[in-house]
Every structure is written in structure tokens, then in C-alpha cells.
Design goal:
It is a single chain. The chain has two domains: about 425 residues, Growth Hormone, Chain: A (Up-down Bundle), CATH 1.20.1250.20; about 55 residues. Helix content is about 80%, strand content about 0%. The protein has 21 helices and no strands. The radius of gyration is 22 Å and the shape is globular.
């Protein structure tokens, strides 16, 4: 093995630190899913309110991505990583001490601000240490949390909820985070600083409240049971105006948060539309599934968490091979197969009843995961290949923002639909009336019907991905290996730029 193939002890130790920090942030996108029924009971809240525990975290992750790039340049990668970890640990401890749904949502924002910076900054540190020759090994190494998070997050969360208080799904981050901070001081390199980059504060103050207002307006539909009322329309209108202002601002900003000129390329545009829809169905369905298993079927939290694992396993098995399949058979063909499989797997949940076999649902989720693995990687790769390699880092930042925003919208919309369906059966206290105990078969069938109607929205989001995929290029130009390594390196180095 040549010296360029060896990672070396310095890179390995830094990689362990980055993986520890990253895996906590990724876990918290899924670990909370199985705790939502417990949180609804603890705080006496319905679906439209408790969904903000997930939505607020996803929005914070999206909003903070461009800030992390600016911070890396201004104060350095190591200090930024440590500040991110500190925010995440403080936010986690505060979440565990929350006394109301409102306080928990606020603390989840703090936690999300920290978690959103951990992964891109960590990847930037590792990319600079590894260089192009060892990029593949390093990215595979620190990509472990991305694969394990969707599989282990719900399982770990379910075990915690079933055996101790829900507060421990947040407290568990504190000792791990403190140990990681101590390791950071010793094993992470200081890195360089520069003050040439500017942060688009105007764009930030337009985009952030715009996204929050639109999401709030959607959640109010569920709370009110209709689209009528000032608390629905004013947030939606003002939020959309702010987002429109952000788009207009981005065309003229020296260093915009999202480079809007990329969207002049058809392949990049349809890729981002697909990624938005993928985010909506991934996070939206991960919001619905634990609720279905616990509320409709009366399963304990640990079992609900375990039942989510097949999707993560299917996705993990296909993510790496999917790129090779796309090289040989074309991006459009592989992504189309993925979209169809993901839709088929989700469609099974539109027919759930109180007696649907768990084996059937597990197989459906496994098929959905395979479809997700076939769809996501080729689409992301195709969007990068049409750009100049120096633009790939900015595209990476835009892709992450769009996926997280899609996820937050998906959760909010699916929560609205679910609460509306449950209210039509049980009245205002729908979730509280049907969670925390083993339902009778009659109740289970009624609740399952409400979920089945809601899963149609998730299946619809999956089916919609087929449309932009049809506009993807059938094949892509082959990039020389050295150029691919350089693209991967530059993308990871400036993930947050």
C-alpha cells in the first residue's frame, strides 16, 4: 500500500472526532420521530403543534448551512466545529429540561443551529487533511453516520422511550458531546482563515423568516382545520413575499446564499426539484410512520423504531452501487427505477388497516429504501456534473438547503393532513385520545384509515419525482478519475461555503 493510500494516524484520529460529532447531529433528525406520541401526551398537544419539534430542527439545519461556510473563513474550521458542538450540546441539554412544547421547540432550534454546522464543517476539515488522492477513503469513512443514522436513530430512540423518560433522547448527547469537544482540542488541526468571503446578511434575513412563516401558515391549517383565518393567510403571504425577495436578491448579491444562476441549467433545476420532493417524502414519512405504529397499532416505541430500520437498510445497500449503475445505464434510467420503487413501497401504506401484517409493511419499507438509494445519488451526481468544478461547492450547499427545506415542508403538510383526518374522527384531542394505550380493533381501523389517507400525500410526493426525473439526461459525460477526485475534494472542502 502506497503512502497516498494510507490515511495515517493523524487523519484517522481527526476522522473519529468528526464521525462522533456528525453521528449525533444525524441521529437527531430521526431519533425524535419515535418520541412524538410521548411528547404529545407529556405536553397535551396535537399533531400540528408537536410536529414543530421535528420541523424546527430541520429548518434550523437548512438556515445555518451558509453561516457555517462564512464562519469557517472568518474564525477557522476548528473553532467553528467546536462552537457548533457546543451549541448542539447546550441545545440538547436544554431540550431535555424543556417544560412545555414551546420551550422544547425553541431549544430544538438552538440544537439545530449547532447540528447544521457540524457535518459540513467536519467534512471540510477532513477534505483539507486528506487531499484528492485519499478523498474516496476519507469520504467513505466519515459517510458512516449518513448510512447508520436512518437505521439506528429510530431504534435507539425507541429503546430509550420504552425504558426511560423521553428526556434522555436529548440528554444522551451531552456526555458524548463533551467527550468529542475534549478530543477536538487535541486531534483537530487549526486550519487557515481568510476574510475575503462575505456573508449575504440581507439574503439571510429574507430567507429565514420566509421559510418559518410559510411553514407556520401550513401548520395553522391543521390547528384551525381549514385554510380560513388571518393566522393562515398572513404568514403564508408574507412568507412567500420574503422568499420571492430572497430570490430576487440572490440574482444580484456578490456571494448569495444560493447561486440562482445555476437554475438556468435544466439538469440542475430538475435535479433540485427532485431533491426537494425527496426531502419532503423522506422526512414527512419518517414523521408519519412512528405515529402510525404507536397510535394505530398500539406498538411500543422500541418496536416502532425497529420497524423503520428496513428503509435505512435498503437505502444503505443501494447508495454506493447506484452510482455505478448510473455510469453504465444512464442517470435517467436508474433514477426512474428508483422513483418507481420508492412510490411502490410508499403506496403499500395507503392501504393500511388495524390488522395489516408488519412483515408486509417491513418489505414495503425495504423496497422504498432501495428506491431511495437508486434515486438520490444519481440525481445529486447529475446536478454536479453539469457545473464547472469550482461551482460544485456552492451547488452542494444549495442542495443541502433545498433537501432540508423540502423535509420541513413535508412534515408540516403531512401533519396538517393527518390532524385534519384524525379530527374528523375523534375531534380536537385526536392524538391524545388515541395514543398511550392498546386500541380496540374498531378504533385501530378508524385511525389506520386516517393514516392511509395521509400516506397518499407521501405516495403522491414520490410519484411526482418521476416527472422531473424524465427530464434528466439519459447518459452523462464521463469525468476523468483525477477530475472526479478534485471535484469531490473541492465539494467537501467548501460544503458550507
Amino acid at each position: 500500500m502506497s503512502d497516498t493510500d494510507k490515511l495515517g494516524s493523524e487523519i484517522t484520529r481527526a476522522g473519529v472526532v468528526v464521525v462522533l460529532g456528525t453521528i449525533m447531529a444525524i441521529f437527531d433528525t430521526t431519533i425524535v420521530a419515535v418520541a412524538l406520541p410521548a411528547l404529545a401526551r407529556a405536553f397535551h398537544e396535537g399533531v400540528s403543534t408537536i410536529q414543530w419539534v421535528t420541523t424546527a430542527y430541520l429548518l434550523a439545519l437548512a438556515i445555518v448551512i451558509p453561516i457555517s461556510g462564512w464562519a469557517v473563513h472568518r474564525i477557522g474550521a476548528k473553532p467553528t466545529f467546536m462552537i457548533s458542538l457546543t451549541l448542539f450540546v447546550v441545545g440538547s441539554a436544554a431540550c431535555g429540561l424543556a417544560w412545555s412544547a414551546t420551550s422544547l421547540i425553541i431549544f430544538r432550534v438552538v440544537q439545530g443551529f449547532g447540528g447544521g454546522m457540524i457535518m459540513p464543517v467536519g467534512q471540510s476539515i477532513m477534505a483539507r487533511m486528506a487531499g484528492p488522492q485519499r478523498m474516496g477513503k476519507v469520504m467513505g469513512y466519515i459517510g458512516i453516520p449518513t448510512l447508520l443514522g436512518p437505521i439506528l436513530g429510530p431504534v435507539v430512540g425507541g429503546l430509550i422511550i420504552s425504558n426511560v423518560s423521553w428526556r434522555w433522547i436529548f440528554f444522551v448527547n451531552v456526555p458524548i458531546g463533551i467527550v468529542t469537544l475534549l478530543l477536538c482540542r487535541t486531534y483537530l488541526p487549526k486550519g487557515d482563515r481568510d476574510r475575503d468571503h462575505r456573508f449575504d446578511f440581507i439574503g439571510f434575513i429574507l430567507l429565514s423568516p420566509g421559510l418559518v412563516l410559510v411553514t407556520y401558515g401550513l401548520s395553522e391549517v391543521g390547528a384551525r382545520g381549514s385554510f380560513s383565518g388571518n393566522t393562515v393567510w398572513w404568514p403564508l403571504i408574507l412568507g412567500m413575499l420574503l422568499i420571492a425577495g430572497f430570490i430576487w436578491r440572490s440574482f444580484g448579491a456578490p456571494e448569495p446564499l444560493i447561486e440562482m444562476s445555476f437554475f438556468r441549467n435544466r439538469t440542475f433545476t430538475v435535479s433540485q426539484v427532485t431533491i426537494f420532493l425527496i426531502g419532503a417524502t423522506i422526512y414527512g414519512t419518517m414523521f408519519l410512520l412512528p405515529l402510525y405504529y404507536q397510535i394505530a397499532l398500539g406498538d411500543p416505541a422500541w418496536k416502532a423504531g425497529l420497524m423503520l430500520a428496513p428503509q435505512g437498510i435498503g437505502a444503505a445497500l443501494m447508495m454506493r452501487p447506484a452510482g455505478g449503475f448510473a455510469d453504465r445505464h444512464g442517470t435517467r434510467n436508474v433514477a426512474l427505477v428508483g422513483a418507481v420503487l420508492m412510490t411502490a413501497g410508499t403506496f403499500a401504506f395507503t392501504m393500511v388497516t388495524g390488522s395489516t401484517s408488519l412483515w408486509t409493511l417491513g418489505i414495503a419499507l425495504f423496497v422504498r429504501g432501495i428506491g431511495l438509494g437508486c434515486l438520490m445519488m444519481p440525481v445529486i451526481a447529475a446536478s454536479y456534473r453539469v457545473l464547472n468544478r469550482h461551482d460544485v461547492p456552492k451547488a452542494t450547499s444549495a442542495t443541502n438547503i433545498i433537501r432540508q427545506v423540502g423535509g420541513s415542508f413535508g412534515v408540516a403538510i403531512f401533519a396538517v393532513v393527518l390532524e385534519t383526518n384524525l379530527r374528523s374522527i375523534f375531534g380536537p384531542s385526536a392524538v391524545l385520545a388515541t395514543s398511550g394505550s392498546q386500541p380496540t380493533m374498531a378504533i385501530s381501523n378508524l385511525v389506520s384509515h386516517a393514516f392511509a389517507q395521509t400516506f397518499w400525500w407521501s405516495a403522491g410526493a414520490c410519484a411526482l419525482t418521476i416527472v422531473p426525473v424524465l427530464f434528466m439526461p439519459p447518459m452523462h459525460l464521463q469525468v476523468p478519475p483525477d477530475d472526479e477526485a478534485e471535484i469531490a475534494t473541492e465539494s467537501a472542502i467548501a460544503m458550507a461555503d
